[in-house]
Specification:
The chain is α+β, with helices and mostly antiparallel strands. It has four domains: 7-214, Heat Shock Protein 90 (2-Layer Sandwich), CATH 3.30.565.10; 221-349, 2-Layer Sandwich (Ribosomal Protein S5, domain 2); 386-475, Rossmann fold (3-Layer(aba) Sandwich), CATH 3.40.50.11260; 488-608, Up-down Bundle (Four Helix Bundle (Hemerythrin (Met), subunit A)). Helices cover 38% and strands 19% of the residues. Helix 9 runs antiparallel to helix 10 and helix 19 (572-589) packs across helix 20. The chain starts with 6 loop residues before the first strand and ends with a helix.
Length: 609
């Protein structure tokens, strides 16, 4: 074999000097130099294993591993592997000519022998040049696996000039030696290096050794078949990913190889009523190399609060691998994840209805958000989304329709579903509805203001009304009027008395014949106004309705004994006191009586005892 000649030359690139561009613009985060170089080293060992499986390498594989070494005194970081190595010609091709990619060459050569693209990360190419973000000089000492190969040394100081010479290296493989620049000496620290390896290399498929110990798990559970795994395996892995989190509710194992390659595990965490992105995010990997935890577009919006891991070599990344690029595969993967989640939820619902109901307070947020954001998800979810009543029972949409059809259909043949957003605050109204045999839904989730609108738009002849949005006879108007014990003149007199005493332009006062066991005075806010305000508050933006002053309806129960007593009172001051007392009781029932008004109410009440 012809020996290596000492050679100096200029790297063939289109830009006069690419290194400052790499350092400043190409990579968003300098620490990823270690991810790129360790990934390349792992790839070199994986390629050797493949060549052995093809029968093109018959030597001893030995203990394949990658070693990261730090020499604080010499100010160097070395990444070593015992993989395929390179000849001098390969250095010229893969390192000097930046337009070439060793990975694409390798794939092209062996495409007929394997469909296992997942083993190829991309040996050298642009990833190698990330070394110059932190190094003032980079050395490669390498020896090819090929028989009688001669070791070679390549050195470059970050300009477009390099030096290539023969070298001493007894075993096959590659050492990348980084002479760290002054402005990057933060990386000459064991803790810093360990932190980067923990972040990016913790699941690489070849052992990575640093400071005398292996830092990675080479066979994370998403690389295994679900049939090999127990529930405890999934829970243990979750604790490994998120040590401070509660145990997950359940999980979904993703595994598809057509029309794209995707594996992973998504966990449903216990999040209760919090509509916020968790610190513990879904992690995106490419062939076991950590890429990012910003998985927008890959994962549908409504599942961004899930935890876990997605691994796909088919997700297109920009050159720094940090940002996803728009692509049809990304849309397909997004759709696949949506289907898998819907199928899993449907399976859980059908297999264990009681267990599903017990989990629903936790998972309802995901399901409702999915219904709001994805029409295809609604088509699946409408069979298992549950509606919870104030008595704690659950029903599917079809079950609830059947449950309420007979008693809650109004004169227009529209089914009216009553709901409360605050069981304690609206207790008097819930109790009133329950006495009439009406069911009341508990819709107190942060997303329910939008979910209510979605239900009305998707279901025919169904209307939702908050239980305190009007008197019950108006909420579910069956065209049945109660007889009033008061004459028309008394009703007019009563209305004028309340208007004069309360003297409040934001109140619309009416007299209504209600059952005698209802409140003497009921205060309500129209459903459309309340709903607009709720949605405005949820969005965090001030809308036209959000800025409007609150308008309330005050309904006086003509048939309540206390109202009859009020009318019979001849002392004007006593009469006004009763008006104020009954109105304050209505405010109290809505938790709207506060401050000086509450103090005055208490004092009046005490005085009457």
């Amino acid at each position: 074999m012809e020996s290596i000649q000492h050679e100096k030359g200029t790297i063939s690139i289109h830009t006069e000097n690419i290194f400052p561009i790499i350092k400043k613009f190409l990579y968003s985060d300098h620490e990823i130099f270690l991810r790129e170089l360790v990934s390349n080293a792992v790839d070199a060992t994986q390629k050797l294993k493949q060549l052995a499986s093809f029968g093109e390498f018959n030597g001893e594989l030995g203990d394949l591993k990658v070693t990261v070494s730090l020499d604080e005194e010499a100010k160097t970081i070395t990444i070593s592997d015992n993989g395929i190595g390179m000849t001098a010609d390969e250095i010229k091709k893969y390192i000097n000519q930046i337009a070439f990619s060793g990975a694409s060459d390798f794939l092209e050569k062996y495409k007929d022998k394997t469909d296992d693209k997942g083993q190829i990360i991309g040996h050298f190419g642009l990833g190698f040049y990330s070394a110059f973000m932190v190094a003032k000089e980079v050395e490669i000492v390498t020896k090819s696996y090929r028989e009688n190969a001669e070791a070679a040394r390549w050195v470059c100081d970050g300009s477009t000039e390099y030096e290539l010479t023969a070298a001493e290296r007894p075993e096959r493989g590659t050492d990348i030696i980084l002479h760290i620049a002054e402005d990057s000496e933060e990386f000459l620290n064991k803790g810093r290096i360990r932190g980067i390896l923990d972040k990016y290399a913790r699941f690489l498929p070849t052992p990575v050794e640093f400071d005398g110990e292996v830092v990675n798990n080479t066979t994370p559970i998403w690389t295994k078949s679900p049939s090999e795994l127990t529930d405890e395996d999934y829970k243990t892995f979750y604790r490994e990913l998120y040590p401070m989190s509660e145990e997950p509710l359940f999980w979904i194992h993703l595994n598809v190889d057509y029309p794209f390659n995707l594996t992973g595990i998504l966990y449903f965490p216990r999040i209760k009523n919090e509509l916020r992105f968790q610190r513990e995010k879904i992690q995106l990997y490419s062939r076991q190399v950590f890429i990012t935890d910003e998985v927008k577009d890959v994962v549908p919006d409504f599942l961004m609060m899930l935890h876990g891991v997605i691994d796909s070599p088919d997700i297109p990344l920009n050159v720094s691998r940090s940002f996803l690029q728009a692509d049809t595969n990304v849309k397909k993967i997004n759709g696949y994840i949506t289907r898998k989640v819907a199928d899993k939820l449907n399976e859980l619902f059908n297999a264990d209805r009681k267990g599903f109901e017990e989990k629903f307070d936790d998972i309802g947020l995901f399901i409702k958000y999915g219904i709001l954001s994805d029409e295809k998800f609604w088509e699946r979810a409408k069979n298992f989304v549950l509606l919870k009543s104030t008595d704690g029972t659950y029903a599917t949409i079809d079950e609830y329709r059947e449950k309420t059809q007979a008693n809650q259909t109004n004169k227009s043949d529209t089914l009216v579903w009553l709901y409360t957003t605050d069981r304690k605050q609206q207790d008097a109204y819930v109790a009133s509805a329950t006495r009439r045999g009406y069911d009341v839904l508990l819709l107190d989730n942060v997303i329910d203001a939008h979910f209510i609108n979605a239900l009305e738009s998707k279901l025919e002849k169904v209307q939702l009304q908050r239980v305190d949005a009007d008197t019950l006879d108006k909420l579910i108007d069956k065209d049945i009027s109660n007889d009033s014990v008061l004459s028309t003149d008394d009703q007019t007199k009563l209305k004028e008395l309340y208007e004069k005493t309360l003297d409040n332009k934001t109140l619309t006062i009416t007299v209504a014949a209600m059952p005698a066991d209802e409140m003497p005075v009921t205060i309500t806010q129209p459903e459309f106004m309340r709903r607009m305000k709720d949605m405005s508050a949820l969005s965090g933006e001030q809308s036209f309705y959000g800025n409007m002053p609150a308008m309330y309806n005050v309904a006086i129960n003509a048939n309540h004994p206390l109202i009859g007593r009020l009318l019979a009172e001849t002392d004007e001051a006593a009469q006004q006191s009763l008006v104020k007392q009954t109105y304050d009781l209505a405010l109290l029932a809505q938790n709207m009586l506060t401050g000086a008004e509450l103090t005055a109410f208490v004092q009046r009440t005490v005085a009457k005892l």
